[in-house]
Amino acid sequence: MRRLGAVPAGDGTVEMRVWAPSASAVRVRGDDDVELAQDGEFWVGTFSGEEYVLVVDGLPWPDPCSRWQPEGVTGPSRVLDAGTFEWSDDGWEGITLDELVVYELHIGTSSEAGTFDGIVPRLRGLRELGVTAIEVMPVATFPGERGWGYDGLYTYAVHPAYGGPAGLARLVDAAHAEGLGVILDVVYNHVGPGDEALRAFGPYFTARHETFWGDALDYAQRGVREWAIQNAEQWVRDFHVDGLRLDAAHAILDDSPLHVCAELKQRVGDTLVISEMKVGDWRPADDWGHDAQWADRSHHELHVLLTGERDGYYADYGSVASLAEDLAGAGHDPRRSVICAQNHDQVGNRALGDRLPEDVLRIAAAVTIFSPCTPLLFMGEEWFETAPFQFFTDHIDPGIADATREGRRREFEDFASFSGEEVRDPQALETFLRSKLHPREPDALYRELLALRRELPRELEAEADEEAKVLRLRRGGATLVADFANRRVEFSRG
């Protein structure tokens, strides 16, 4: 199917294609004002200019597939010619699961500048540490300046505060030059506040399903499927990303014979696709052809064993035997399980955004990296960062801002260790600034474990002593012993 949105034609004009099955008239207003022709459920035409809006039955809106929103979610769309990006990665061969070590980061808090360019000076150090790919939290344009990115509204348009489309292209090119792949976190289970801007064009949402965030996207509609899948194709084609991490794929609800997540993988081909799923749901690996998925159970088992916390969703965890099973792959190729000691959810979704203390993190990281699963490091953990990673937003709608504050307080009612008064105001600038990293040299433990990991065979022998709370792992000639009761970890070779 032809590409949606505004696509430069190469002759100074721009081809437009928009899905608007319920509209009676659609115009594109750029340097000129052009009435689009109806083509089934789509409207097509050609216009001139850089900035534009789409006028649907008399009302102006940004393009749902806008490639660039320099003035944010309320401004006009701008035409993007990705052919102007400068690339030097012709020899780049991509990434595979075999050597994958992922480093998750948030653009706004990873550097003082809070931009794509601010990450570039750290890339070489990450590769020297043993990381093979950075995983960038969502960069789609969302309301306001600061946020985690999971409330994006214009999924094709790179957030202007981070440096916009050209900034992302520079980061990817620089990463490839340093031997690092780039995995991009994408969100297709919901959109953020302002979804009336999509509803104006057609039935993007359905009442047949409901998600934690509200109405589900309607993937029975071909236009909605293309909106998501063509977005995935854009990141690979125009920005050279090596992988996609699908946020909360269990909430991408689709009753079609071919699930939209399976079709997405077919369309992006060899690009790595990694899904976040509920514990125990292996549809991405088993049914959809995805390369890997986040395996949160191992994190939860580790967290409870090391902290004793059993509030909320931690209530059912804390088993050494279950952890051993997870580290062996839980019946799957262990490379397809992405495991971690920490990630943005497990830190940021705590009331205070507090990280694991150093003594605990040393054990959790050692177990994670020593295992044959695919390890994920969360930004700053390699030097035992003490700054929190808190939940922060910058909603421009006062009603949404107040609802976010109240929802954040309610979220922790089941956690005995926190009170509502302790939860930081997500809208406060200080909450964002408090979450900034303070880069230092990585601790030797991470360098040593990642170097050891590269030498180990894939096969794992695991012994669990439930009573003593001790886990013994062996790969080849190397052994790791984690004593959770006494918070000690030792590893040896030979």
- Domains, number: 3
The largest β sheet comes out as: 8 strands, parallel, barrel
Overall geometry comes to globular
Distance between the termini: 57 Å
The beta-strand count equals 25
Polypeptide structure, described:
The protein has helices at residues 107-110, 116-119, 123-129, 164-177, 196-199, 222-239, 260-268, 283-286, 296-307, 320-327, 344-348, 358-370, 398-411, 429-433, 444-453; strands at residues 5-8, 14-19, 26-29, 33-35, 37-39, 42-47, 51-56, 59-61, 77-78, 102-105, 133-136, 140-141, 154-158, 181-186, 205-211, 214-217, 243-246, 272-276, 292-294, 337-340, 374-378, 461-465, 470-475, 478-483, 488-493. 27% of the residues lie in helices and 23% in strands. Helix 6 runs parallel beside helix 7 (260-268). A hairpin with a 4-residue loop joins strand 24 and strand 25. By secondary structure, the protein is of the alpha/beta class. It has 3 domains: 5-81, Immunoglobulin-like (Sandwich); 97-389 and 436-457, TIM Barrel (Alpha-Beta Barrel); 397-434, no CATH class. The protein is built from 15 helices and 25 strands.
